[in-house]
Amino acid sequence: QIASAAEEQSLVTADINGNTESVREVSDQMTHEAQLAAEEAQEVHRLMTELGREISRFKL
User: Fold this and answer.
1) What is the largest CA-CA distance in the chain?
2) In sequence order, what DSSP letters do the residues of 1-54 get, joined into one string?
3) What's the confidence (pLDDT) of residue 60?
4) Residue 32 is part of which domain span?
5) Beta carbons within 8 Å of 22's beta carbon, 6+ residues apart
6) What pLDDT, on the 0 to 100 scale, is given for residue 29?
7) What are the CA-CA distances from residue 29 to residues 19, 22, 23, 53 (Å)?
8) What's the structural domain count of the chain?
């Protein structure tokens, strides 16, 4: 009975470790995606600023 409980505990521990690793991988991917989104937002801001300068050159 002790051996069975120890084996079950070992399996649960391995399962928890696997789940923890999965969470870490998803977290890393989300961090990467957030960094890409921030870079894209900076580029959009740069383009909007440039567009604003170009538009301001026109007179009605």
Assistant:
1) 89
2) -HHHHHHHHHHHHHHHHHHHHHHHHHHHHHHHHHHHHHHHHHHHHHHHHHHHHH
3) 73
4) 1-60
5) none
6) 98
7) 15, 11, 10, 36
8) 1
